[in-house]
Amino acid sequence: MNSPAKTLRLTWWHLGLWLSLALVAGGIAVRACLRYNEVAGTDKSPVHIAVIAAAVLAGPLVGSVANPDGGGHGGTILITALLAAGVFGALAPFTFVKRPVSRLAFGFARAGFVLVSVVWFLAALISLGIYLS
Questions:
Q1: Based on the structure, what is the number of domains in the chain?
Q2: Which residues pair with 100 in a beta bridge?
Q3: Cβ pair 125, 25 in contact under 8 A
Q4: Is the CB of residue 128 less than 8 Å from the CB of residue 52?
Q5: Is the separation of the CB atoms in 53 and 30 below 8 Å?
Q6: Rounded to whole angstroms, how far apart are CA atoms 20 and 81?
Q7: Residue 113 lies in a domain
Q8: 3-state class (DSSP) for residue 100
Q9: Is the separation of the CB atoms in 23 and 53 below 8 Å?
Q10: In the structure, what pLDDT confidence band is assigned to residue 34 with cuts at 50, 70 and 90?
């Protein structure tokens, strides 16, 4: 039995997933900064913490925003570039194919986008942890 085809195209679902993950990662970043202030005895201002929370959208570059003097920016830029290529690669089927495909192909494309998006924001939080340590 053939299942009906699904059309690959960018939808609000993609943006909704991305912003939902950014909101969760931003909340974790705020909590990490507040905890950092307690443990390290520093005083990151509320404005700086808000900038860091928004910077999770930049993926691993958030560490450089949190601590510009942390060093290691070359590696962070390389990792960000590789992950950005992965995000664009995961979006490519939705951007360029734009035709009906099997439910299996659609599921793989969507799962790939979810996986790459989760990795992007996890890399942001790992970077933040490294730069705040």
A1: 1
A2: 7
A3: yes
A4: yes
A5: yes
A6: 22
A7: yes
A8: strand
A9: no
A10: very high
The reported pTM is: 0.90
How many residues can be counted in the chain? 133
For the record, the structure tokens of 53 come out as 């929370």
SS3 55: helix
Q: What is the pLDDT of residues 39-62, one digit of tens each?
A: 888 888 899 999 999 999 999 999
Whether 101 contacts 32, CB under 8 Å: no
Sequence letter at residue 105: A
Binning pLDDT at 50, 70 and 90, where does residue 2 land?
A: low
Which whole-number Å values give the CA distances from 99 to 57, 96, 109, 112, in the listed order? 29, 9, 13, 18
Give the type of residue at 39. V
Q: Are 29 and 52 in contact (CB under 8 A)?
A: yes
Question: 68: domain range?
Answer: 9-132
Q: What is the spatial distance between Cα 74 and Cα 78, in angstroms, rounded to a whole number?
A: 6
* Rg (alpha carbons) of the chain, rounded to whole number: 18
Q: Do the domain assignments include residue 4?
A: no
Does residue 98 lie within any of the structural domains? yes
Residue identified by tokens 């930049």 is 58
